[in-house]
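Deviation from plan, reported transparently: zinc ion complex.
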Amino acid sequence: MTTADAHTPVISIRERYRDVVSEKWPVIVTPQLDELLSSWLHRLAYANGIAPRPFARVLGLHAGMWSASLDLKLPVDIENLLRAYTGISPHWLSAMMLTRSSLKPLLLPLRSSGRRDGSTWLQFCSRCLAEDAQPYFRRRWRLATQVSCVTHRCGLRDRCPSCHSRIAAFDQTELVPQHYCVHCGFDLRRASKVPMSPPAMQLDRCINDICRLETMTGSLRSGMLVQCLLRMPSITDSFPTASLSSLSTSMRIRCVERLADRPTDWLTADDDAVAAHWRRSVLDAGGYGPLISQRADALELKRQRKVPIKHRTPTVALSALLGTYVRMMEGPRHRPFRNRDWTSG
Ligand SMILES: [Zn+2]
Ligand SMILES: [Zn+2]
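Because the crystal trials were delayed, the predicted structure below was used instead.
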């Protein structure tokens, strides 16, 4: 018997063993709409009977903000491990991360100053959490510009209303879902709604609609809008030196409330005349949220299918988008545009 022959039976036994014993973790958790990778990881850990903090060790990580860091950068070995043990696709992982987001400069920082009026890394809407079958944290709640929930017409929170601690699900050592405060056990779904005036809600919606659209068209890369938004506290004269992303959600809501009573020229001044015109159109219309969401999602899907990630360039000129929106908003007189799927043109 040769050496090769002697090894053959061993290999076949191992292959049969693999057939009957799954290498995947017992419970697979499906990512939800706009879910953050960290939120999905906390749910994955809980579903498999491990609290988030010890789950970090399963991934070869140390304690601290391990999951929040993975939202921004996922090492290849951890990506491979997650794919092997959960079967999740690279596309899903990428969709939950913030790595390639053009809005990265507007993200809330992971480090917190510890000040009462300082930012924390993550916000939430208690009503959204209460209505979720499996409560989860959204990617958009990481943005400094997002201070309200359009669905529930209320402001967001960035602290537990009971003990005023930030969200720290990554630090949880008990086997409880992530919507319970790590420090005091308060159920975040029970937090009361944060009131916001209708004009402030509308301005917040317009700002985020504009950001989203300029992300799609690529014009956000010029940086002018981002700089303008980060300066919002100084425009209100309340916090002359503070950056928007350094302030707590309640302070940012205060900024938006004050700006809602003023002219919006601070938001429409831009070297790019088309971008400035488009922003004015969104502000005048009070935001094109549902329309933009639907069309932007279709555009993004088409772009992801057609363009390799390394060579992504804007596929739609802002002027073309603007022209189409204007025609659509003008209504039934423009029949050729009424039923046209403008993602195909
Ligand atoms: Zn909500
Ligand atoms: Zn608490």
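The longest strand covers residues 148-149. We consider this an acceptable substitute for the interim report.
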